[in-house]
Recover the amino acids of this structure.
């Protein structure tokens, strides 16, 4: 069957981006990707996707703007608090047995999840001996993440999440009002290494004890999901932990037999 | 409006049903879905607006009322006939061209996540004339654009009679934006759904 014109144009745009900039969006879920590209197209005042492709190909600045639509910079501190509670109760006791820890927050976006885990590790006495690798493909998100400044009006929600996640103090302990936002303690950021890494094109960069990758692979098709899970499997140490988003699963990938579920409802797994 | 004959031909092409509702939606959907049997010949995919950060147990609630198998729509799962699917709370639900689901945490649309528009727009593109869109009671604007898109892609659209709906805003907005194929009360819509049981619509 012949593809609709818009689908052909999207295929060509994605291919052009891959060839020119080496960002690989070819295996993203198509329905939501199409919508994001159309939003980018109208924000960049293009009449068609072909016109957008022309601009993206010849102007890296336009590509960087479109990248903000191709990626999904939506994040939240302590999102799904029960996940963090389960990490505290089921993962932390094992992590405490290691002399040093490497934790990978894959697809960290603007950093909310990495800071949440840093706070949790701090409260469990583990941050001192930890390195958190927080990776993403979007340099604008990574820059934001490094600053550690989040919107003040989100703090009520994040405080509620933090408490439900088993927080031992108050979230306020970790930030000060500054730059029109909530600036998080530099001691947390010092333990987080933010860097560029693509689950679609890059390989494993370190052995890790715990990989947290939440609400990232829902934007991937099955093939790319399997690629990501294989990377995590390769990176994790023996019996290492993997945490996914509440509605994500290993079931539709080729990797379901490589992990065992330890807290099903919170999507916490252990490497087999 | 089509002649009866044309409408019948279009209904015979239906391969999937999407249903959207907001305020009053649970009650309305129960009325629609309670008589459906386990071997219902189509998939039915639903979005009901619920407060965010609210763990939904819609599937459990509905399963007590109907014999058709009810489940949360799972990311990457293949869409099957004889299933009543609900979008999980806090996620957008989209239909892919290969008749699988995708979830998304993108920002709310029309203050809603899941958004009826997003489900309907993606399903319209996936199923084209094979899609039946039903929009029920609700107090916001979500769903109106989605219904329009279903129509644009050749699908069949049914809107609950605004006067009968617990909240008529959503149906009225949809009717303003496009002329639906049918404007019906819940019992009429239920009849329509049951007609697919014979393998062909009457």
């Amino acid at each position: 069957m012949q593809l609709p014109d818009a689908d052909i144009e999207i295929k060509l745009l994605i291919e052009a981006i891959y060839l020119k900039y080496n960002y690989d969006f070819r295996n993203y879920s198509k329905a939501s990707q199409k919508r994001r590209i159309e939003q980018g197209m109208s924000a960049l005042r293009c009449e068609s996707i072909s016109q957008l492709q022309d601009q993206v190909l010849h102007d890296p600045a336009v590509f960087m703007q479109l990248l903000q639509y191709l990626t999904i910079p939506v994040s939240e501190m302590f999102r799904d608090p029960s996940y963090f509670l389960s990490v505290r109760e089921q993962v932390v006791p094992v992590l405490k047995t290691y002399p040093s820890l490497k934790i990978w927050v894959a697809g960290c976006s603007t950093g909310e999840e990495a800071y949440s885990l840093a706070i949790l590790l701090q409260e469990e006495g583990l941050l001192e001996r930890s390195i958190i690798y927080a990776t993403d493909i979007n340099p604008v998100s990574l820059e934001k993440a490094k600053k550690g400044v989040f919107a003040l009006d989100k703090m009520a929600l994040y405080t509620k999440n933090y408490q439900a996640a088993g927080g031992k103090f108050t979230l306020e302990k970790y930030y000060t009002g500054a730059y029109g936002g909530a600036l998080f303690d530099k001691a947390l950021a010092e333990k987080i290494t933010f860097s560029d890494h693509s689950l679609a094109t890059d390989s494993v960069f370190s052995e890790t004890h715990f990989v947290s990758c939440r609400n990232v692979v829902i934007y991937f098709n099955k093939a790319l999901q399997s690629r990501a899970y294989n990377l995590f499997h390769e990176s994790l140490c023996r019996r290492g932990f993997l945490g996914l988003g509440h509605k994500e699963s290993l079931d539709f990938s080729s990797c379901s037999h490589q992990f065992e579920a330890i807290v099903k409802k919170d999507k916490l797994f252990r490497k087999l | 409006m089509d002649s009866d004959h044309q409408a019948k031909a279009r209904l015979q092409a239906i391969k999937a049903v999407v249903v959207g509702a907001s305020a009053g939606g649970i009650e309305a959907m129960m009325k629609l879905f309670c008589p459906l049997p386990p071997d219902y010949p189509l998939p039915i995919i639903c979005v009901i607006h619920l407060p965010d950060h609210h763990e939904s147990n819609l599937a459990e609630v509905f399963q007590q009322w109907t014999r058709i198998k009810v489940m949360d729509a799972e990311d990457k799962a293949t869409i099957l006939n004889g299933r009543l699917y609900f979008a999980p709370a806090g996620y957008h639900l989209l239909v892919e061209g290969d008749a699988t689901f995708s979830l998304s945490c993108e920002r709310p649309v029309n203050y809603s996540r899941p958004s009826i528009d997003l489900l309907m727009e993606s399903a319209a593109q996936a199923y084209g004339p094979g899609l039946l869109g039903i929009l029920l009671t609700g107090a916001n604007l979500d769903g109106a654009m989605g219904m329009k898109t279903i129509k644009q892609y050749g699908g069949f659209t049914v809107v609950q009679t605004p006067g009968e709906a617990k909240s008529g805003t959503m149906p009225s907005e949809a009717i303003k934006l496009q002329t639906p194929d049918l404007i019906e009360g819940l019992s009429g819509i239920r009849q329509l759904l049951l007609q697919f049981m014979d393998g062909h619509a009457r």
